[in-house]
């Protein structure tokens, strides 16, 4: 199955209007690499302005609420994000699962709300270091994926991001064999739920991906791109990752 590579930057709680020039430069670089789908998941405050300058890079959010509207101070609905210019959103990032106590059921509900508002979704899963050290990471993350998977999951609107928690922002990554084994396990888990749709669904790797390791990671058969934090904050750092996917 030939899956287009998808490379997405997650700026987390970084970025002010002063950084819109980086968005513009990344969008221009994406335009020069049309074989790769490139996006930036930005702070919500930047989505509207970024959408106007992002060129070939799509703009996404980092989370959305599962409800359409209501008394949820400080939260943003999927429709609000769509109106601002987002075309996709991350759900279930480990930092939100941990900081905001989001459950697998919350993550599935958020994915459905995003889809209903017309957003594409990147659903994150990944294990702690304790789980990795215990030797059952593939089973644990496969269970987490199936518990977080929304009804109607399909390759045309949903992608998965495997992000080992211990690799995020640490400069450490799993061995290539471990990444290959996990991505194969996740695709097999998907197939038990969605059958042949699993063949087309993109499974990204995330966690300390950068210009030095991206080519090797994305050469793995079931790795269909990357979800990139620190190395997506400037065009200079992100460009080699996009290049590695092309
Ligand atoms: P880093 O690339 O900074 O490790 O972050 C990965 C991540 O959490 C992307 O969502």
Biggest beta sheet summary: 8 strands, parallel, barrel
If you compute it from the alpha carbons, what radius of gyration comes out, rounded to the nearest whole angstrom? 17 Å
Question: Are any ligands bound, and if so which?
Answer: 1,3-dihydroxyacetonephosphate
Share in β-strands: 15-25%
The helicity comes to 40-55%
Per CATH, the superfamily is Aldolase class I
How far is the N terminus from the C terminus?
Answer: 17 Å
CATH class: Alpha Beta
Instruction: State the order of secondary-structure elements, H for helix, E for strand.
Output: EHEHEHEHHEHHEHHEHEH
Low-confidence stretches: none
CATH topology name, in short, is TIM Barrel
Q: Order the strands across the largest sheet as they lie in space.
A: 1-2-3-4-5-6-7-8
Secondary structure tally: strands: 8
CATH architecture: Alpha-Beta Barrel
Structural class designation? alpha/beta
Q: Shape, please?
A: globular
Provide mean pLDDT, rounded: 98
Number of helices: 11
What is the number of independent domains?
1
What brief labels describe this structure?
246 residues, alpha/beta, TIM Barrel, eight-stranded parallel β-barrel, binds 1,3-dihydroxyacetonephosphate
Structure notes:
This protein has 246 residues and is of the alpha/beta class. The chain has one domain: TIM Barrel, CATH 3.20.20.70. 41% of the residues lie in helices and 16% in strands. The protein is built from eleven helices and eight strands. Strands 1-2-3-4-5-6-7-8 form an eight-stranded parallel beta barrel, surrounded by seven helices. Strand 2 (36-41), helix 2 (47-53) and strand 3 (58-61) form a beta-alpha-beta unit. The protein binds 1,3-dihydroxyacetonephosphate.
């Amino acid at each position: 199955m030939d899956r287009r590579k998808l490379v997405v930057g997650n700026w987390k709680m970084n970025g002010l209007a002063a950084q819109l020039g980086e968005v513009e430069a990344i969008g221009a670089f994406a335009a020069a690499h049309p074989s790769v789908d490139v996006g930036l998941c930005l702070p919500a405050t930047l989505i509207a302005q970024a959408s106007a300058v992002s060129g070939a890079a799509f703009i996404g959010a980092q989370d959305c609420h599962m409800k359409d509207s209501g008394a949820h101070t400080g939260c943003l609905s999927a429709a609000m994000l769509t109106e601002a210019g987002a075309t996709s959103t991350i759900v279930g990032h480990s930092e939100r699962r941990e900081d905001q106590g989001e459950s697998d059921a919350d993550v599935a509900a958020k994915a459905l709300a995003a889809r209903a508002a017309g957003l594409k979704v990147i659903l994150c899963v990944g294990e702690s270091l304790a789980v990795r050290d215990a030797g059952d990471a593939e089973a644990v993350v496969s269970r987490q994926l199936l518990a977080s998977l929304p009804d109607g999951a399909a390759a045309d609107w949903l992608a998965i991001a495997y992000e080992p928690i211990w690799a995020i922002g640490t400069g450490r990554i799993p061995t290539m064999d471990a990444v290959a084994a996990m991505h194969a396990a996740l695709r097999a888990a998907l197939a038990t739920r969605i059958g042949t749709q699993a063949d087309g669904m993109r499974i990204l790797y995330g966690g300390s991906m950068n210009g030095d390791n991206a080519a090797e990671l994305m050469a793995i058969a079931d790795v269909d791109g990357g979800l990139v934090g620190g190395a997506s904050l400037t065009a200079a750092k992100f460009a080699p990752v996009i290049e590695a996917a092309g």
